[in-house]
Each structure stands twice: as structure tokens, then as C-alpha cells.
Fold each of these.
Amino acid sequence: MKSYDVTALGELLIDFTENGTSEQGNPILEANPGGAPCNVLAMLNRLGKKTAFIGKVGDDMFGRMLAGEVEKSGTDISNLVFDERVHTTLAFVHTKPGGDRDFSFYRNPGADMMLKKEEVKDDLIKSSRIFHFGTLSSTHEGVREATRHAIEVAKQNGCLVSFDPNLREPLWESLEDAKREIAYGLSKCDILKISDNEVEFMTGTTDYAKGAAILRETYGIPLIFVTLGKDGSRAYYKDLSVEVSPFLQEGTIETTGAGDTFEACALHYILEHGMESLTEENLKELLTFANAGASIITTRRGALRVMPTEDEIRELIAQRQ
């Protein structure tokens, strides 16, 4: 028996997001808890799952704030480490017209980069049904070693391994480094959530069906989700290919957390149904639920604190039917 549904390892940081302008015309920035892995876990908590997080923050004002918010969301933070020397990572998010984003990171170094292999609690991973990670914990040597160790512990103990590349180009010394580390993640995962631009980055094609086929053939990934932004999402599983349209809303503010919400909804469905014998109907139901969850979060500022409930997702789906 496993004690946790999902344990994730990776970055926990502050997203400074734009929230209007001051009387002097200066942008007002709001400090939102951020970091893709904890966003995923927060959404899973909303859906009734039990989660744990492995990572590091600074022993500073923002680090303590983040620890409190993640714990409040329902995630076990017994393996959240505080660094006394390196500050919590900060990200400044500029939202473009239409909701897409540019990121500026203050992370040279940031505390999330300082996690060490020996600080990872293996028992937490062994006790989990799914282990989830991205590539922001593979940008630098020390935390990369910790991440790879955690992945191997997960593989050795029968966990499903979930991977979201979550490419952030400014954080890599070179795009070749990024490509190499994403390829490593692809070689280890059972469940892949990848965006359209990341498919193009890794395969060189904007034909996403072709790109998904390349990824499956090269890395043997059982289940692939491709998120297409305003064009919805697709799932590739065995000989099945399923596409579901998005839930577009007039109230969309920004896309922060949309992919993480999608990821969590997908993992929730896998936890409920398994992934041994998914049908076309299963995949359609999964994508519909995940698209609806992702749509709701785009109408809210931030992510971790404001994840939708299952009832809200079901209500949005019911409006389409």
C-alpha cells in the first residue's frame, strides 16, 4: 500500500505577476506562490488526493511564506529544506495580450537549485503511487543529481513516473543542455505532458501527431498528452489518438498555472482509472476534465492558492453539454 498519491520534486518560488498600475503609472506586482510541481500538487489536493513535495527554499521571508502556503494547500512539506545562505528564487512574469507570458528569473543561484541528493527522503518517494518532476530541477549539476536519484528511486519502487518538461529557455546555459535534460526525462517517464512548442523544440516539427509519434518511438512513452493552448489538447496512447477542444472564456486574464492544472487533472484521472486499458472514451473524458480545469485557472491571478474545485470543473463541462 502506498501512503501518497503523488510526490513531486522541483522548484518552489515566487511569481511576481502584474496586477494593475499605481497612481504614478508604475506596474504593481503581486507576490504569488509559484513553481510548477507545487501547482500540480495543490490542484491534486483540491481533487482529494494526498501529496508530498521535495524541494528547497531560502530561509527568508519568501521561503517561509511559500512553506506556509504549500502546507495550507494540503501538501506534505516534511522534505522541504530551508537554505540559510541562498535566497528563495523569484520569477517576474510579464503577461502579453492574449495571456501568453515572458519570464525573468532571479536565480543565480536560487535556493531551489541547491537541493542535494542526500537531502532527498527516499521513503517519501517509495510511499507514492506517482512521482512527478520537470526540468527546472535539472538546470544545474547539484539539483540535477538529486532529481536523477529521485527518479531512480521511483522506478525501482514501482511508481509511475510523470514528466512535464516545462521549458524555460532563460534558465539554461545553452539550449543544447535543455534538449539533453529533456531527453533524459523523456527516457524515464510513463506519463508525459508536453506543450506544442516543446514538441517542436524536441522533434523539429509543428505536426504534433508526427512529433508525438517520434517521441513514442524514440523513448517508448506509454501515455503522452500534448497541450495546444487555445486549440485544446490531445492524448496518444497505444493505437489511440484523441483530441478535445478547449473551453475558451471571455474572462481569461493569464495562462499561469494552466498547464499545471491540466497535468494535475490528468494524473487524478489516472489515479482513479489506472493506465493499463484506457479506452477512447476514457481519454476523451480525461482531456475534457483537464481542459476545463485549465480554462478556469486562466480566469484567476496566480495558481497555487486559487485552484478550481471539482464541482467548478464539472459545472463548466455541464455548460457545454
Note: The mean pLDDT is 95.
Amino acid sequence: MTDPIADYLTRLRNAIKAGHRVVEVPASNLKKEITRILFEKGYILSYKFVEDGPQGTIKIALKYDPVNKVNAIKKLIRVSTPGLRQYVGYREMPRVLNGLGIAILSTSKGVMTNKEALGQKLGGEVICYIY
């Protein structure tokens, strides 16, 4: 697999379109941090790290609106790819959906959202946009 983050986002996107409640993805430290951010920002209901084998898995419970059966995540867009990395400074920080969505960045201080990175005046690699 050449791009595990794109695979992670695609598994989430496919589970949302299929209406699944839980999705399992292979674990890595970067995927764990992205999952933590999604939980903190309210895009997923819960998550659990399962240590089975050398890699482990992440079980993610997706969040749906009980009335309309609409998922909290409308769109997942992969920005930086292995073939074309996208870096931004804190002065060029992207605004996703005019501030309603989040951009997840990999910075020198760890993985964080665009708002957290702007507050700490950090730039980094833009991993994905979520809204």
C-alpha cells in the first residue's frame, strides 16, 4: 500500500456511504492521532484501539443524526499525497468551509487542527480537510 492515510479516509468514506455504524482500520500512530482529533471535534461517536498482531486495528463508531440518519462527516478530502506533498506556513493556513470544517496538519509539535496550529503559529503538512 503506497498511501495508508488515503486508505484510512476511503474506508471511513465507504462506511459512511454504506450506512455502517462501526468501521475497522489498520492502526498506525498517525491514524490514531487523526482518529483522536475526529473524536475531540465531534465527527465520530467513539473509538477503540485493539492490539491484535503486530499492527493492531482501530474500531471507529460513526456518528449519525438520529432524526435524519445523516452522518456528522459530510466530506473527507485527502490533500497531501506521497507524490505531491502540500505544506503551508501559519500565514497561509487554509480555512475549510469558511471556518466550519477542519484541516488536519502534521506539524513539528504533532498532529493538530488548523486552528490549533494557527494559535501556536505553526505550519506543516496538510493531511486532509474534513467537514
Note: The helical segments are 4-18, 29-40, 114-119.
